[in-house]
Amino acid sequence: MSDKATIEIKGKTYEFPIIEGTENEVAIDIKNLRSSTEGVITLDPGYKNTGSCESAITFLDGEKGILRYRGYSIEELAEKANFLEVAFLLIFGELPTKEQLEKFHADIKAQSVVDEDVRKIVDAFPKSAHPMGVIASLTSALTAFNPSSVNVNSEEDMYKAIVKILGKFPVLVAWTFRKKNGLPLDYGDKNLGYVENILKMMFKQPNEDYLFNPIVINALDKLLILHADHEQNCSTSTVRIAGSSHVGLFASLSTGISALWGPLHGGANQAVLEMLEAIKEDGGDTEKYMAKAKDKEDPFRLMGFGHRVYKNFDPRAKIIKKAADEILNDLGVEDPILNIAKALEQEALKDPYFVDRKLYPNVDFYSGIIYRAMGIPTDMFTVMFALGRLPGWIAQWREMRLNNEPIGRPRQIYVGETLRSFKTIDKR
Ligand code: CMC
């Protein structure tokens, strides 16, 4: 392959370098397009063809259904690693040694107390507030309690900010959940693992000990790993672009949480469960909903189906579907919604509308069924996604700052009015 791309614009020819990644992905490097062509830019709504950065964190091949964190396959990590190891791997690039992991966990635990005044903010939210709005606000509020900005040139400063958010975010998640359920706000237990602690902080009743269920711990660990990073998706791009203005880590993360909330992104897990419930309430007629999804006049979409990058299958969905079966079985939960989900999947996999458009179940299609079996309410599903995605956002923010990337600032093609004269109000 030539190492140059040639573009002809208005009779003039320009050459641009071709760059290739370690997995042979190819891009035309257009960094100098505008300056060398007197103002020509590219137009790519939704960035369907645009690489925004070079990244060494996550590799994804949508055609082959491959997902790897730092070179390790998602299948192997989900089976053999725990969430904190994966967080370390994503953020710092290598799997931790035993000592590194212990230190990392100890440093996180040392930072897992939240300023008491944050409780007043939690108290001010109505119980009806959506937990994603609350957690985005609380993450943003952390900037007020930690006002000094991170010196990204200092590894120590960077590390401190990272363990701080990994320590405090689960507390904020638990408080968001407990406040909504009228439970006292409490702290976790320093003697517990990262994931066990999250469960205890969320579910412990004030008048009894919390009983750990290894099936639930393993299920949450796996779900968090599967959600931990997904290269330049909507929320991650948001974190990177916000952080590129040199706003701090916590402020950047809160923008990512807001972006994740939308039903086309992380909010799909809540939307899937609501859709499955609606189908059940409506008599379980999956064919009717398939027809609605295919009807271009109907805004209904089959939530949990389709993906911008995966055009074969979502490897996370494969793992989660199997896990959903096992976990419901192990917990002795019979959920009719699982059967509705399977029926929809079966119909979609042989329906030309879905086959032609390469629409397969994504990570959100089965995850809600597991969360529900674990006792997590529907409106907390996307918060659990955020909990899993946190190390990914941190890793991407860190990479962006260490690479000294320029401020994110796309251009546009203006299609509005050309110059016109101002009309005073009596003449309009
Ligand atoms: N149900 C019915 N039709 C669909 C669906 C769906 N879920 N998804 C895509 N299509 C159709 C769409 O109407 C279009 O048809 P046509 O070519 O006739 O106009 C075609 O498939 C291509 O869709 P698109 O919207 O151009 O694709 P996109 O890459 O812009 O969007 C998506 C990807 C994930 C936003 C979309 O598939 C979708 O809305 N899915 C449902 C929401 C969902 O499950 N989101 C979670 C994504 S995975 C987790 C995450 O991102 O956090």
TrEMBL record:
The active site is at H307, D364. Keywords: Transferase, Tricarboxylic acid cycle. The keyword Amino-acid biosynthesis does not apply. GO terms for cellular component: cytoplasm. Pfam families: Citrate_synt. It catalyses: oxaloacetate + acetyl-CoA + H2O = citrate + CoA + H(+). GO terms for molecular function: citrate synthase activity. InterPro entries: Citrate_synth-like_lrg_a-sub, Citrate_synth-like_sm_a-sub, Citrate_synthase, Citrate_synthase_AS, Citrate_synthase_bac-typ, Citrate_synthase_sf, Citrate_synthase_typ-I. Pathway: Carbohydrate metabolism; tricarboxylic acid cycle; isocitrate from oxaloacetate: step 1/2. SUPFAM superfamilies: Citrate synthase (SSF48256). GO terms for biological process: tricarboxylic acid cycle. PANTHER family: CITRATE SYNTHASE. Belongs to the citrate synthase family. This is Citrate synthase. It comes from Xanthomarina gelatinilytica. The lineage of its organism: Bacteria, Pseudomonadati, Bacteroidota, Flavobacteriia, Flavobacteriales.
